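User: quick one
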Amino acid sequence: MILTLQNITKFYGRIQALDKVSLQVPEGSVFGILGPNGSGKTTMLGIVMDVLKATEGKFLWFDEQPTPEHRKKIGTLLETPNFYHYLSGERNLRIAAEIKGHGMNEIPNVLKRVNLWERKDSKFSTYSLGMKQRLALASCLLGDPPVLVFDEPTNGLDPVGIAETRDLIKRLAKEGKTIILASHLLDEVEKVCTHVAILQKGKLITAGHVDEVLVNEDIVEVGASDMLKLEEVLKNTNGWSNMRKEGSLIQLFFPMGTASLENINEHCFKSGVTLNHLLLKKKSLEVKFFELTQSSKPN
Amino acid sequence: MLRLLKIEWLKLKNYRTFWVLTILYLVSIVGINFITFWIERKVYEAKQSKGIVELVIGNRPYSFPTVWHMTAYMSSYLLFLPGLLMIIFITNEYSYKTHRQNIIDGWSRNQFISVKIAVAFLLSLISTLMVIVTAMIFGFQLDNPFSLEKFEYVGYYFIQAIIYTLASVLIAVLVRRGGLAIGFYFLYVVVLENALKAIMNRYLDDTGRFLPIQSADDLIPLPIFENIQRQIIKPPEYPILLSTVAVYLVLYLFFINRKFLRSDL
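Assistant: Done. Structure below.
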């Protein structure tokens, strides 16, 4: 395991930010930590980076007791880009590389990789929010670390920057790096992650492989001009667990892998209803996310 | 430690505020001594006061060997400035959150705070070297031959500088916010401790001299009027003073470390 958390609990005074969170990040995974603002994502990453102290519990990096040497092998962007405002982008990276003890020769490379080479000599304070974020990404890449931790990496980026960052993450994942990605953006996690953990109010609701956590039902969307008759006819089919009207369409929920579009189409046609819409959907993360976070809300 | 100091150097090298203040400070050490040197010359060279001044004040303060004592004494009035520099340097890290980033990038908390303490020592050392240079500049203007007698006051100055800079490191680490830390530091050094000293001296049996800054200040008493002082003011009791200062040094180091190693950053 790259990272293991065991019963991590954190109190800020009387406010509980994390409640006995345990999880494991396997090597080579893109591990999404998903949760609304204030759910404890940054607190969790702050603890494993030793900038915050857990009230209880422990964690391991690379199956060992954590040391500063481990952190030198991890490229981390935590919350906001933290740099010396009065220094240029390049000088800021020099400090980071000196601390890590490697990566001095890669400074030009990483600056080019995030499109900051032309502005390398400008002071950090003159950078736009997006440029600051990209400099932070560049700093993470110094020394080609095997593990990357990104906390809201697309914060403040424009659409092009967001797309580029996601591409970068996918490319890094392809290179076999382990990536821990905290985000409140569902589609971000859905698009790039292999594993996901969902946090809500400091509690770990669920964690596991994206396919297991996020998709466990097939949804078939059906539409016809005569909706009343369609509903009637569909009620006579079997295999589905739930039926829901969604605008001008009807959604049928099947256990994963059991929906057959042919059967539905054939049945409806034989019963005198011609379909104008028939679609198999994987349950979207958004639906799942709301479902998961709603159900665990105290009544 | 050299590696760590090299990184601190990278942080400071291009930080203009720091250098402007540092250079102004070092020039001011010469400046403040120049003012008193000037006054001294006026007083001693006025014909009508010949003899009387020597009798009352003693040897010319800026001639060897008293020049070591005199320069250390005058320069100590500027010691709030290295403290200010340390506060700016450290609270900057907090406001840029680079104290977090340094740890994230692979420093231990211990390394981060140790090198800050090392910078405080270096700053105290530079300040002391400047006092030595200044003392020589003025000492050689006068007729007495060079002498290292009374050089111990330069050593006391170094200790005093360390007390000032470490106190400011502690305040910076505890308060974290620049403006508040600077305000608190100045109010304490200039006003609060003096008020406290007066109260303690009056009601608590002269214990004001055990206060953190005052005990360091007392290491270097007023160097002139020695002849008169001998009659009315007790000379400093160095064993007691030095142990008080040592206790404060240990306390500062202990609380700086404790705060930085244990709390959330």
